[in-house]
Amino acid sequence: MKRFRLFALAVSAPLVLIVVLGGFFSPASARQGAFPHLRVFEDVISLILNAYVEDVQVDEVMEGALRGLADGLDGDSAYLTPAEASRIEANAPEPAGGVGVALSRQYYLRVVAARDHSPAFKAGIRSGDYVRAIDDQPTREMSVVEGARRLRGEPGTSVKVTVIRGNTADPREFTLVRERAPAATVTARVLPQGPGYIRVSSFAGSGPADLKAAAERLQSGGAVSIIIDLRNTADGGPGAGVEAARAFVRSGVLATRAARGDTRETIEASAGDGVITMPIVLLVSNGTARAAEVFTAALAGNKRADVVGEQTQGSAGEQKLVKLPEGRGLWLTWARYLTTDGKPIHGEGLTPDVIVEEPNVAFDEIPPTGDAMLDTAIERALAKKQPAGVL
Length: 391
Prior knowledge:
Layout: H1 2-24, H2 27-51, H3 58-71, E1 78-80, H4 82-90, E2 97-98, E3 101-106, E4 108-114, H5 119-123, E5 130-134, E6 137-138, H6 144-151, E7 158-164, E8 172-177, E9 179-180, E10 186-190, E11 196-200, H7 207-220, E12 226-229, H8 238-245, E13 253-259, E14 263-268, E15 280-284, H9 291-301, E16 305-309, E17 317-323, E18 329-338, E19 354-355, H10 372-383
Parallel strand pairs: 11-12, 12-15, 15-16, 16-19
Antiparallel strand pairs: 1-18, 2-9, 3-4, 4-5, 5-6, 5-7, 7-8, 10-11, 13-14, 13-18, 17-18
């Protein structure tokens, strides 16, 4: 009888999850696409219970199965334990300290980008690195939500992260001291060659307004064009990218937010938008994500900017908590942003007009001197120095 109850639990748990997803998506797709797989799943569970070489802990097997279902969606979605779901639902203020990384999942927790001058950045952690453990706790089965929580804490406290890079066999351990995020995330100057240069390290908080103010200062100061550096910029939700784009696009579609069932919200420029009329060149990298990607797509799609650099991250979705039985939950990507011509950014990324790769640097390797990406952007900006027409 006990074995039967465990078997019933094993089969019913993924069924509940799929029913919930079916409610979010469509009943037809849930019936046609998911339930045939449940029959295979039932056979697998039956074989594990009756034919595996030793007795198994069914609850552990099922937790792994549920995590696998969510991991198969994208790097931002996650299956949540009751404790993780409860913390999101409580919406309690987070500790003020952090290490300055944005995370996704790909087997382990993966670094999307490390914010400028953050503890992670100063330690040499870069976009594409894998966080294999946090304070000796393996991340192989850790959600992005839980990983981000463990990296936060009071300023001045420390956290140990174990990092692997590329094909490096040996991981590196870093002890990072948490810091408050800087209030100023936008800096600007005029380059000796003539173009203005704006570095945006985050679109969170006042980032969009600060970017607009910096561009206005450069425009009124006589810069011939503006280079906006969005390399390894991953802070800020996609909506902040739309808000920032308004300063540069006078008319037209800025972005489209698409949910399941072809439900779409088209976001367009409004009266008073497009106060910055100078030619723009955008610098992007594999660590350009979220708000920065939506901003890039808006300007490029409206012919307001040339884009130089690498393929971007492809992380431009919105997530929300979906509650499950027994306190569990799903952190589920429920909407994604599209380019002005309707192509998905989330999961795909953006391809620059001019591709320039950042060098891959191993641990302890001295990076090459110079900045080929910026040099290419300057050439592009000088070629576009004629004032832009009114859009």
